[in-house]
Amino acid sequence: MAVSANKEDRYVIGVDFGTLSGRALVVRVSDGAELGTAVHEYRHGVMDRELAATGEPLPPDWALQDPADYRAVLRVAVPAAVRDAGIDPAAVIGIATDFTACTVLPATADGTPLCMMPGLEGRPHAYPKLWKHHAAQPHADRINTLAHERKEPWIERYGGKISSEWEYAKGLQLLEEDPEVYARADRWIEAADWIIWQLSGTETRNACTAGYKGIWQDGHYPSRDFLAALNPGFAGFAADKLEHPISALGTRAGSLTAEAAEWTGLPEGIAVAVGNVDAHVTAPAAGAVEPGQMVAIMGTSTCHVMNSDGLAEIPGMCGVVDGGIVAGQWGYEAGQSSVGDIFAWFTEHAVPGSYRDEASLRGISVHDLLTEEAAAQPAGAHGLVALDWFGGNRSVLVDHHLSGAIVGLTLATRPAEIYRALLESTAFGTRVIVESFGSAGVPVTEFIVAGGLLKNELVMQIYADVLRRPLSMIASDQGPALGSAIHAAVAAGVYPDVPAAAQAMGKLRREVYHPDLANAAVYDELYAEYVTLHDYFGRGGNDSMHRLRALRDRVVSSRADDPDDPGDTTSGSLDDETGGY
In terms of Cα–Cα distance, which of 321, 163, 198, 184 is closest to 240? Predict the structure, then answer.
């Protein structure tokens, strides 16, 4: 590391629990200097086909994890980051974490995940459901329908729809598909809060996940009557499994226990901050704590977060929460369910072998080769427009049964043209979100990018052109981990609040990309076509995507129930040997 340290310096640790790995970052509290980092890949990754422990097959749209992987990050990545920083662990004064959300798990009253209980290792519902577990969409649909029928006041705080990704839809699915596991769950807890429980021995509920994923609004959860109307057995869900005092972000949850100190190699008794979410914690890392500064955390998916000093109800938003990002302001969230995942899908499953051969020969990735060819194309030359719904739509339609589409394909279409159209589709999806904010009276005054995709210059220029505005960029490769470290510094008492810590420790480069007005004009035309398709397939003009999804699920389920059907014996070899078709 280029930054030096001395014995008078004090440090904090930020730990970012992502989809496939956890990262620890050592940060100096005086100026936010990043001194050391380490990553630990989850042994079990994402279980979306079968349970790793037993081979139990999983239905479509499931995504589970093993909480043992989270503990391993504390044991492996944290001490490795301290070693990488070359500092004395005794100089560390605080630790904070962030998590993907909604990643939620059933646990006993002492915090033991049910999947770790004897006899439950083969029960899928005993495991944490990752944020991209979308199998609870029918349950979300019922919750939304009932909320509107009863005119529940909280539903408009979520743009009129709650997501299949969130606590209630997943909890209702648990009750109705495995009532025994539901009954044994004393807690239905966000992984963001569970990991703090592991570190501090203190059970907490953070304001971010409680508000955005747990429907905590104006001091309470949805009523017992509402929950009972969904299912009589669901009546006590909030009171029995969720209810707990809500803790403000940046506050101290407790102190590092002796056991956690042994895991991490850090001093017992240091500050442990209240949990947080990876996207929301990134805003302070980018110095984005003022109203109107929207941060788009772009990776496998994109989450858009922004503070405002006023409350508005924006159709299709993921939520607006008092203190959801920074205490004292209204925090808004929107998102796209898949972004980087779309690009990865295309390079892995839809590119001819000749591209892999050329990329290998040149020593570059297939992504880099496609980006190079796509960048050589004039905007609009491919004659394509795509819908970025390969993982469903989070905002503004909030429907995970929607699917991707590419319109304009001909026999002359080439892979790099499709790739560029997919890049553009995600920018169009973001423009829908930005315009929805503006139409609701919550204007975006600065657009800031964080996450892994900011390294792709073509993607960034396309976003600037499509949005017709400059792009600012976080000046850190570890936005969530840095944001967690900022919260650790506040919890340790170094700074009075998160904005003060963000001013000292956050990192932002302003207006790095500017729109090309000629390209922007072309993109206005393409965007108009995107909106036409968006509304046609997404707002009730044509329900074919839902019918196709239902047909797929029915066929897959019937084959799984047929003991004489060996299933698909070819797809594995296609994936393993050729990387797709």
Answer: 184
Inform me whether the pLDDT recorded for 572 exceeds 90: no
Residues with Cβ within 8 Å of residue 177, at least 6 apart in sequence: 125
CA dist 64 and 298 (Å) reads 22
**Which helix or strand (DSSP H or E) is residue 255 part of?**
strand 252-255
We report the CATH number of the domain holding residue 209 as: 3.30.420.40
Strands 471-474 and 446-450: parallel
Cα(122)–Cα(106) distance, integer angstroms? 14
What is the C-alpha to C-alpha distance for residues 504 and 507, in angstroms, rounded to an integer? 9
Question: d(Cα 278, Cα 285) in Å, to the nearest integer?
Answer: 11
Three-state secondary structure along 56-107? Answer: CECCCCCCECCHHHHHHHHHHHHHHHHHHHCCCHHHEEEEEEEECCCCEEEE
pLDDT in tens, 326-367: 999 999 999 999 999 999 999 999 999 999 999 999 999 999
532 within domain boundaries? no
Range of the domain at 161: 11-273
| Total domains in the fold of the chain | 1
The number of residues in the chain equals 581
Q: Quick one: which of 377, 472, 392, 470 has its CA closest to 424?
A: 377
Element spanning 182, H or E: helix 179-184
Backbone angles phi, psi at 268, to 5 degrees: -60, 140
Picking from 83, 90, 79, the residue whose alpha carbon sits closest to that of residue 11 is 90
pLDDT digits (tens, 9 = 90+) for 433-475: 999 999 999 999 999 999 999 999 999 999 999 999 999 999 9
